[in-house]
Amino acid sequence: MTELELELEKKEIIRTYRKLLRHAKPFLKDDDAKIIKRAFNMSQEAHKNMRRRSGEPYIFHPLAVAQICVEEIGLGTTSIISALLHDVVEDTEMEIEDIERHFGKKVAKIIDGLTKISDVFEYGSSQQAENFRKMLLTLSDDVRVILVKLADRLHNMRTLGSMPRHKQIRVSSETIYLYAPLAHRLGLYAIKSELEDLYLKYTQSAQYAEIVNKINASKAPRSRFVRNFISPIQKELNKRRFKFTIKGRPKSIYSIWNKMNTQAIPFEKVYDLFAIRIILDLDQEMEKAACWQVYSIVTDYYQPNPDRLRDWISTPKSNGYESLHTTVMSKTGTWVEVQIRTKRMDEIAEKGYAAHWKYKGLDSSSSESGLEAWIGKVREILDHENSSAIEFVNDFKHSLFNKEIFVFTPKGELKKLPGGGTALDFAFEIHSEIGARCIGAKVNQKLVPINYKLKTGDQVEILTSNKQRPNEGWLSFVITSKGRTRIKDELKEQKKSAASEGKEIVQRKLKQIKLTLNSENLDKLLDKFNLNSALDFYYLVGKGKIDPKEIKKIKALSDKPKKSALKTVSDSESLQRKIKEATGEKRDQLLIGEDMDIVQYSLAPCCNPISGDDVFGFVSTHEGIKIHRVNCPNASELLSKHGHRVIKAKWTSQSEVSFLAGLKIKGTDRVGMMNDVTRIISSELRVNMRSVSIESDNGIFEGSIQLYVQDTKHLLKLTKRLENIEGVEEVVRFDVH
Ligand code: MN
User: Is the entire prediction scored with pTM above 0.70?
Assistant: First the structure.
């Protein structure tokens, strides 16, 4: 770099810092500006010789994170300082104690929560989970840890382009698995959708680009539609002297993509590409009445769909979201969602709890607020030190569930449950003891089993019995973390008591053949029954699943030499090495179709990848390497929780394997339709079908075909040919399971 370039760089840093101060100004008190300056100088000094992968000086990253905290989350001085220093302890010589000396306990604690667990410790596959857990442990002290972390993650995602491909996939997966739901749970809608869109951009670039293009291409007719739609409403609102803004809000790219995928429809069929948002500017005490008044105006012009009215003003979501939603029929025959809210509600929706504080004051005593309740729940999970980090992340995920339902106790008290919650979840929600003794429930006076899925508005009465005990099966339908934790505790207890019975049996049996229960004999027994833990062994004996007579047989084994167990390679590093050894230095990825004889791999049945799909290899513990599609429903979980077991994989063209794929065909039925479809598949393109099912209902024809293709190109060609058949309206790929 030349002298001049360095000079320009320095100027740019100062400019960025000044911009931060300008945005923070309204929050600043006393000598806040001075302290921020000190934090900036310290961070700049600490990161002095560091550059990001993109080549720019490192300090731009903490500056950007601080900027997000101020501008997009609405946080103040403490968070700005923490953001500026968030990477200092992890990446430089600086210690937490130094931070505390200069900036006090509060900042030190936040930064400690943001500092990852050092790599020195052997945390294995769950390190990411451990980091996450550590971050949440500080949550009970200060929510700002999470908010700064989200800002950090957002900036990392925004600059992910300069990272290598495998890192992009791992970081994106983590983001979609944990951080986007977390942002959603905290009510940070803007950040949540940006994280989701970026995830899509880096994991499914082609589909992302296609949707962006289509959104842009349809812009002009869409704005015309919005103008026509809102014009009568605008006039009426003006006449009644409302202060308001009204606009068409496009749906996020991710949610469009999600809809296309879950409903197997093309872009053109997604009807709710945008929503109309009416934002009123008025005093807080008039809010509710005014919003309903606007609702009444809207529905005077457009017919509402009675099933699609959502009133989150009377009952806000537990992340604080307030708004009135309705879906109405436009004059051109399409459904349009209209969101009615006030400026205050809008700010809370975009900035989440940070905006709440602005309106309510940080230390308001409203402990009933959703966030408090949620933090309480997270704390409950955290207090359970027994659970492994992975288990913890799973349970935590459950507590982040997007949808929630509102149900009532027999006395009319409102309870919020995650969508999909069952009668048993409800029982645990009331009291863990009631959950543990629950045998059934009455929902709206009718008797239902404990796994009955509740719906909003249900009134639930729980039936209990003292003889009831939780069992393993309950875990398959209980989704609240409170319930799951209680069940797991109980199961552990049950297991322990069965195990202690089992241990006595083992001791007795060994005694009969004049052996004692020492670690050597225990090892032999574990070997014989192919078990890893003594607890499991005793438990199986105690439960009668292992015949006590078998135990005596170890006498015969005693003198035989121990055979070394055949072990599967279970970490990707040694595997990468193995592949390299076998294929030459330059290859650091698995070539599917070529390396078959070197390394055993198979195609994952959950997503059935076909040649040409974007894929990765995953080292499973028992079945060698599994090849998954990058957009496999399980991918984000695998990648974020076991990132180190992922290996790069690529298709080679030589492969002659066929792949199973599925196509859904829809259209209007006619004589000979079925014939045309099967003729093209089997004779013209010589594709083998595994199964075909075609249904015809009142002239509409719907077929679902599973077939074997060579690669994505082959599949595309087939799709194009099928689309050209007279009467066929759409052909969409679906995942074969
Ligand atoms: Mn960072």
Answer: no
